[in-house]
């Protein structure tokens, strides 16, 4: 008697059922992960633009200005004045349940790297959930800090998505 090698229909159905269950569990978690990573990248991009503006102020020995439109997500770095030469521009992907809130619409760096206004703060959140929020602070000395997810400057829970 010869034995035929292969899978039975029942074995294939069991494997497909297991795959469907795994997909049903994984897909919502995957979409949440993608959305959280998108917000994370937006926070890192804003932090990089702030660091760029400070470095340009020090290197060129000029004042630089960061203009932030929280409603559209447009961030511009300009030289010498708020209406000066555009050095760099980026559009953060706010919307799609990602929000941006700042303490001021403009941040300036002087030629020595110090910043005005002192203690500038920006928060990027997903779906208004402070646990997913990323806080960026700029001290009067001009240094920027991108804080841990869901944490404020003290290391405690962020509390809200507004500054």
From TrEMBL:
Q: Does the keyword tRNA-binding apply?
A: no
What is the membrane topology noted in the UniProt record heading this document? Single-pass membrane protein
Localization in the cell: Cell inner membrane
Q: Does the keyword Nuclease apply?
A: no
Could you mention a single GO BP entry for this protein?
protein secretion by the type II secretion system
Tell me which UniProt keywords the record has, alphabetically. Cell inner membrane, Cell membrane, Membrane, Methylation, Transmembrane, Transmembrane helix
Q: Which Gene Ontology CC terms are recorded?
A: plasma membrane; type II protein secretion system complex
Give the top-rank taxon of the lineage listed in the UniProt record for this protein. Answer: Bacteria
Matching entries from InterPro entries are given as: N_methyl_site, Pilin-like, T2SS_GspH
Residue ranges of the TM segments? 7-27
The primary site where this protein sits is membrane
Where would I find the General secretion pathway GspH domain in this sequence? 42-142
Q: Which SUPFAM superfamilies match?
A: Pili subunits
Q: Which family is it part of?
A: Belongs to the GSP H family.
| Name of this chain's protein | Type II secretion system protein H
């Amino acid at each position: 008697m010869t034995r035929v090698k292969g899978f039975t229909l029942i074995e294939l159905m069991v494997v497909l059922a297991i795959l469907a269950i795994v997909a049903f569990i994984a897909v919502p978690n995957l979409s949440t992960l993608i959305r959280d990573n998108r917000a994370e990248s937006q926070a890192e991009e804003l932090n990089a633009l702030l660091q760029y503006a400070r470095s340009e102020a020090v290197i060129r020995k000029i004042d630089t200005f960061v203009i932030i439109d929280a409603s559209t997500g447009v961030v511009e770095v300009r030289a010498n004045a708020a209406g000066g030469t555009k050095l760099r521009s980026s559009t953060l992907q706010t919307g799609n349940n990602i929000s941006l809130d700042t303490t001021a619409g403009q941040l300036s760096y002087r030629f020595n790297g110090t910043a005005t206004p002192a203690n500038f703060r920006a928060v990027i959140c997903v779906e208004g959930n402070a646990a997913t929020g990323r806080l960026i602070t700029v001290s009067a000395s001009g240094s920027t800090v991108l804080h841990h997810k869901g944490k404020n400057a003290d290391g405690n829970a962020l509390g809200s998505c507004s500054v």
